[in-house]
Amino acid sequence: MTALRVAMIGYGFMGAAHSVGWRQAPRVFDLPADVEMTVVVGRNADAVAEAAAHWGWAESATDWREVIARDDIDIVDIVTPGDSHAEIAIAALEAGKHVLCEKPLANTVEEAERMLQAAARAAEHGSKAMVGFTYRRVPAVTLLRDLIAEGVVGTVQQVRAAYRQDWLVDPEAPLAWRLQKEHAGSGALGDIGAHIIDMTQFVTGQSVDAVSGTVETIVKRRPLLGSGSGLSGTAAEGYGDVTVDDAAIFTGRLSGGALVSFEATRFATGRKNSLTIEVSGDRGALAFDLEDLNSLQFYDRTADAERQGFTKILVTEAQHPYISAWWPAGHMLGYEHGFVHQVVDLVQAIHDGADPHPTFAEGLSVQRVLAAVEESAANDSAWTRIAAP
Ligand code: SOE
After folding, report:
1. Which of 55, 130, 263, 302 would you label with 78, given CA atoms 20 to 30 Å apart?
2. How far is the CA of 305 from the centre of ligand 1 (A)?
């Protein structure tokens, strides 16, 4: 069996989640290729060596360019902040590697366009490129997409999508890279709003064609970051400006005409990682809640009136997406399983010579919606059309 040798660039929170994916996928699923966790790359030699030992990477390194130039690397997995996605992904594609890139694809539309062009050129030589919108691979979300495509809700008339976290309610939470435009591109909008834009487009099979929105930075200055990097850093002396949004609320129009309400916020006190989506149609409705991720809620408008009401579909049957490789019915999955399924689908696509989704084109489409929300917010929430590709 061929071996796919992986280099992961970055090793923070997402690096840990991706490592679990690379480690578990070949153990739980019957993959058509071997996966080797060859090298993890980071700037701090000691810290990245520790991460390698902890997560099971064979080696660590400090120079991603040297790693990408190596012949013994097939896949480059990018889990760095958004400001380095374009440079690393384009270099990796030009070196003939397959690329998995964390979401959002880039910090700007222009970067995402260049990444898509590089992916298109590399595809001619067999390289695959995929964006890490991992929640597509929560079994209940995949099922949600399948059921809508089968027509169980009929014509989609409205969608409500929200991603709510609260890790910034504390005004002393430090100025991590996610709060700096030059590193993250935008705030809640790009970090978690990107997920609900992608999920809406994925489950409905429609594109967001126009938006009207508002963004807000609620706490404008924060303590500088001492140690740590992501959601759990500690503060140092001094304060700096927050240069991204804390919350974004916007309305969207889908290509099929349906209206969507979106909310992405890091100020939803008490909501730790709440992603909800509800799709309403003329025959029924389907709803998903990440905090109850082994299920869907289904309302069947065509059922007899006395039997109508939202009912729970427990998405743990062997017939449900991805489940047969795991546990018997009723034995739950969690946050990390999406990262395992992402590896499964990427490896299968590379083996089959197919394009793994989400493609860079889909990543670019999300980037265009993010940019349109910012443009609308800067223009008193004027309706803003998303330019056709
Ligand atoms: C932080 O908001 C974060 O880690 C996101 O960056 C991830 O994409 C999401 O899965 C969990 O929250």
Report:
1. 263
2. 41
